[in-house]
Amino acid sequence: MIERKNARLLALATLLIFLSTLAVLLARQFNLGPTMAVPDYRAFGPAGAPVQIYEYTDFACPACRHAAEKIDEMMRVFGAGLRVHFKHFPLTGIHLWSLRAAAYADCAGEQGRFKEYAELLFAGQEKWAQTKEEPKEFQAYARQLKLDWPKMLACSDAPETLRRLKLEIAEGDVKGVNATPTFFVNGRRAVGSAQLIDQAMKFDNVLRSAAKP
Amino acid sequence: MTTKPTAKELAGLLARLILGGVFIYAGVIKALAPAEEFAYAIESYRLLTPKLALWSAYVFPWIELYAGLLLAAGIFTRFSALFNGAMLLFFEFMLAQAWLRGLPITSCGCFGSGGGNSITREFIQNIGLIVLAWAAFRYGSSMSADRLVGPHDA
Description:
The complex is a heterodimer of chains A (213) and B (154). Chain A is of the alpha+beta class. Chain A folds into two domains: 30 residues; 172 residues, Glutaredoxin. Helix content of chain A is 58%, strand content 11%. A five-stranded mixed β-sheet of chain A has the order 1-3-2-4-5. The longest helix of chain A is centred in the N-terminal third of the chain and has 28 residues. Chain A is globular and about 80 Å long. Chain B is mainly alpha-helical and 154 residues long. Chain B has one domain. Chain B is 70% helix and 0% strand. The mean pLDDT of chain B is 88. Classes of the chains: A alpha+beta (213), B mainly alpha (154). The interface between A and B is medium-sized, with 26 and 27 residues.
């Protein structure tokens, strides 16, 4: 009698474990988990904007460069309705320097010039992305923006910087990001700028009414 | 014939549900976040190597989730309560050694990186949870799966 009862309980436990595992894995896939906040210099637009976009990007990816232009355009059109959170997702397996570029961009951000440095990285992508040795462009862009280069070097080597980047990559992995750029528009996934526009169109009314003066 | 649960049984049931719920929440919130995030919190206790901390961070949230579920559902209630209580004692040990060594821990990692309490607050909170584990162990069999699937044998 006891053995039969235990067998039933074991079956019930197995079922619960199976269902809960499935639920958590699905929740991950549908981006229901918490999202880590980005540093202030990587968030653009009003904090209370009705449409929140999380953008997982790699500075060495050409599609990300085009998507960055689209995002800028959307920011210009829908200003008040949109907030963009920039997340690093360097594809280190195929882009040798994108992790380093992300670190430098963050360090430029700490000196108040993330956006400008990111724009230069995207604009000069073809020059630095394929080099064998550390690209001299990283320093040249810093000089161009009158940033403190020794400070940027120290910052890019700091464990805190590397830790933040690794966490963002890990977060992207958990959310099933495997291509760049990947966006989450109010939680809905979009890969590439065409899907981004598609998803954003679903919030067209909200965006337009928020953008009205 | 069904008998009305006594006050002690109701308290046991409540303890089981609350403690199970806390473990389920702690497990889910961490399982939904990158393991590396929890691993950094584990590393700050300075007891495990980074590699072991990462492995623990992969495994622990799931153990918490399953243990919480089994307790809340009342499956092998006494064993589940004992297991959850043992985990809480282990957490108390981790917190106490960190406090004694004066480690600069800003987030205990208990509920992911977002919900960081001070070591003292977590320590006190865990004492309350240990009391719940005891109540669930002693009186938690009311309205449990254990009772539902067969005769009461405890």
